[in-house]
Design a protein that fits this description.
450 residues, single chain, mainly alpha, 83% helix
């Protein structure tokens, strides 16, 4: 197996801002196309089936999908951190053990989540106060999605491995192909076959299966220090322990995020289908910020992980500062863009004027605080690259999740309105950002020599 050299790994040698951008843009475009085909699902059902279908795909069902996929993505991030550290240290044996363990984990995880997903979808939707007219179609969407969740997990773990190895381009290429495939399948399933909400779920599963095949095939080709071999997929206890140590807090953090969002979704559902549809449409516009900030987060985790493994401590703090500045500038631009063009943007999803009005009010409340959230994203991602995950998880748990839940159960009953519900986001972001700024400044003096 070929050995790579430091000169061939620009993450630990090249100009930081250039390499961050070279690594960031493929991740960003990949996330864009991932959001693109999810958004296309909603655009097609919203425009051609109706606002009830829009609410079914993007409302309670969407929150449940986010919870499950987010939990697994958080867990798999632990694998990515360990893989990036082994790759930076050029430890081929441990690297291959980590890759095969991660794949075994994705297969086992898909079975664990698929069974309850198929059996409990309807009951969970009822518990979330999902409007009665949306229950059947939302449950159908979830059952189809969970039936093919193995492909979602394999794609996420496979693309995460490639990015941890410094390859952010191939996951992008595969996602572009599958996004286009999903659009074609959406049109066939909804317009030609008239399958509605079930049709977009089937299209998503087929597209994810194709992307899972592509990313697996890429890892099976010999690379610098690594090669995935299907017959070698199994758990390596030592590596699994390290991956879980880093990944479990991230997975738990993601679950708490999603649970708090599900509680908020339940509070939103109380205000009827128009509000639920508006919140679903806003979620897709809001995704523009999350995919960019998340791409910066993945980039800095990989940068920190590989430089930490290579012992290049001076590059760690520099890359964090540069990444934070980049994310700040982009976040301000996104907030301005969404506020300025809010009405035509909501019009993409629905022609219902009341849905557009409600969604626009939501957007004006939340987007100005994007610039605050970046401190949570960048600092927590950088600390994850150093395997420092416990305290950041506690900060997020208390500052975002528990405070948000307390807001819904304490503040909202005092002044019940959709505006009060939505305010939970800016309030918790500001609180948690302050906590992360304090903690990061405290920890950075102890994590590496000055």
């Amino acid at each position: 197996m070929r050995q790579n050299s430091d000169a061939g790994n620009q993450i630990i040698e090249g100009t930081i801002w250039k390499q961050l951008l070279f690594f960031f843009f493929p991740i960003l475009l990949g996330t864009f196309f991932q959001q693109f085909y999810n958004t296309i699902d909603m655009v097609i059902v919203g425009r051609f089936v109706g606002k009830e279908a829009l609410a079914s795909v993007g409302g309670s069902a969407g929150q449940i999908v986010n919870l499950v996929v987010g939990f697994f993505t958080g867990l798999s991030a632990g694998a990515g951190v360990i893989i990036s550290q082994f790759y930076g240290a050029k430890d081929a044996r441990s690297l291959n053990a980590a890759i095969h363990t991660a794949y075994a984990f994705s297969l086992a995880g898909s079975v664990i989540f698929m069974i309850p997903g198929l059996l409990l979808s309807f009951s969970v939707l009822e518990t979330m106060n999902t409007p009665a007219e949306l229950l059947e179609s939302s449950a159908a969407y979830l059952k189809i999605y969970f039936g093919g969740i193995v492909f979602v997990f394999i794609y996420n773990i496979g693309s995460g491995i490639l990015r941890a190895l410094g390859d952010s381009k191939r996951p992008l290429y595969y996602l572009i192909i599958c996004s286009l495939l999903n659009v074609v399948l959406d049109l066939i399933m909804v317009l030609a076959l008239g399958l509605g909400v079930a049709g977009v779920a089937i299209a998503t599963v087929i597209a994810q299966a194709f992307s899972a095949g592509l990313v697996t095939r890429a890892l099976m080709k010999p690379g610098n220090l690594y090669q995935l071999k299907l017959r070698h997929i199994r758990f390596h206890p030592r590596v699994l322990k390290s991956q879980l140590y880093v990944g479990l807090p991230g997975g738990f953090q993601s679950v708490m995020y999603s649970l708090s969002n599900i509680i908020i979704q339940s509070a939103v559902n109380v205000y009827g289908t128009d509000t639920t549809a508006a919140w679903a449409a806003y979620g897709k516009l809001d995704a523009l910020f999350w995919m960019i900030s998340g791409a910066f987060g993945v980039s800095i985790t990989t940068f920190v992980g590989q430089n930490y493994g290579a012992g290049k401590y001076d590059r760690i703090e520099k890359s964090v500062r540069i990444c934070l500045a980049m994310d700040c500038v982009v976040s301000i631009f996104i907030a301005g863009f969404l506020i300025l063009f809010r009405s035509p943007l909501f019009g993409i999803f629905t022609s219902d004027s009341e849905v557009v009005r409600i969604g626009s009010d939501m957007l004006k409340t939340i987007t100005p605080c994007y610039v605050v959230f970046i401190f949570i994203e960048i600092y927590s991602s950088a600390l994850r690259g150093l395997s420092d995950v416990i305290i950041p998880t506690i900060l997020t748990l208390c500052g975002v999740c528990l405070l948000r839940i307390a807001w819904i159960f304490v503040v909202v009953p005092i002044k019940p309105s959709i505006h009060t519900v939505i305010l939970s986001y800016p309030v918790t972001w500001i609180t948690t950002s302050v906590l992360f700024i304090i903690y990061y400044q405290y920890r950075k003096r102890r994590l590496w020599p000055s």
